[in-house]
Amino acid sequence: MSVTSVDPGWFADNYLMVIDMAAHLGLFTMPLGPGDEQKNAPPSNEDIAAVAVAALTDPEAHAGRRYRPTGPELLSPDEIAAAMGRALGRRVSYMDISEKMLTKALRALPPSNYSEAAVSQLAIYAQEYRRGSFAVNAPTGDVLRLAGRAPESFESIVRRTVAGRPDLKRSFPASARAVAAFLKILLTPALDLERIKSQRDHGRLTAPRFSQDTPEWTATHAPEAPVSATAKVA
After folding, report:
1. Rounded to the nearest 5 degrees, what angle is found at the Cα of 122, between the Cα atoms of 212 and 63?
2. Is the domain defined by 5-218 classed in CATH 3.40.640.10?
C-alpha cells in the first residue's frame, strides 16, 4: 500500500461557519487573536479535493509524498472580514472572541457536522492559528501543480457561498433572527473542553510541545514562502 498525505490546515470553510452573523450583523467572530497579526492562506473544499483526486488517480507518482493545498495568498483576520464584506456588499468587522465563546456559539447554533469532539479539535486548531502555524511555508503551489489550475481566492469562495444562500440577503426579519441567535449564544452554557479531551479514546501526551517550540521543525520551516504565480504544472 502506498500513502500520500494531504494536510490542508485551516479550511476556508471554517470561516464560513459564521457567515450568517457577518451577513446580518456585520461581525466576523472567531478566536484567532488580533486582527492584523496571524495569517492563513485558506484552501477551498474543491481545491483540497482536486489535490486528493490527483494523488488517488496516479498513486505511484505521488506515493510517499506530502501535499499542503492552500489558497493563493496569506490573509489576516481583518482581511478575511474585508473579503466577506465585499462578497456580502456590506461592512464586516473582525472580532476576536474566546474559545469559551466559540463553544457557546457552536453549541447554540450547531452546524450539520457538529459534535463535541469536533469542537474540541477546532479549539486546538485555533491555538495553532494564534501561534502563526498556518502562515508557515504558505502559500504553496500544490493546487497548481496537481490540479493544473490556480487555487481559488477566499473572496471567490465567499461569493459562491453567498450566491447559493438567498437567506444571507439583508432584511429586517433576517437581522432580527440574527440578533435572536446572538442572544441564544450568550445564554448557552460553554462546553468543558478539558472534559471532552479526557473522554476521547486516544492517548494524551504528558508533556506536549507545539511544532514551533522544537528546533527540528523550525530548522526546516520558514514564516512565509510565497510561490511564484508562474510556477510550472508538474
Report:
1. 65
2. no
pTM of the model: 0.87
What nine digits make up the cell of 42? 485558506
Q: What is the pLDDT along the chain (234 residues), one digit of tens a residue?
A: 889 999 999 999 999 999 999 999 999 999 999 999 999 999 999 999 999 999 999 999 999 999 999 999 999 999 999 999 999 999 999 999 999 999 999 899 888 778 888 888 888 899 999 999 899 989 999 999 999 999 999 999 999 999 999 999 988 898 898 899 989 999 999 988 888 877 776 677 788 888 888 888 888 886 554 444 334 333
Domain boundaries, the chain: 5-218
3-state DSSP of 53-120? HHHHHCHHHHCCCEECCCCCCCECHHHHHHHHHHHHCCCCEEEECCHHHHHHHHHHCCCCCCCHHHHH
92-110 burial, b if ≥16 CB within 10 A, otherwise e? bbbbebebebbbbbbbbbe
Q: How does DSSP assign 40-53, residue by residue?
A: B-PPPHHHHHHHHH
DSSP, res 160: H
Q: Report how far residue 93's alpha carbon sits from residue 27's, in angstroms, rounded to the nearest whole number.
A: 5
Cα–Cα distance between 197 and 205 in angstroms, integer? 12
Q: Using DSSP, how many helices (H) and how many strands (E) does the chain show?
A: 12, 4
Does residue 137 come out as left (phi exceeding 0), alpha (psi in the -120 to 50 range) or beta?
A: left
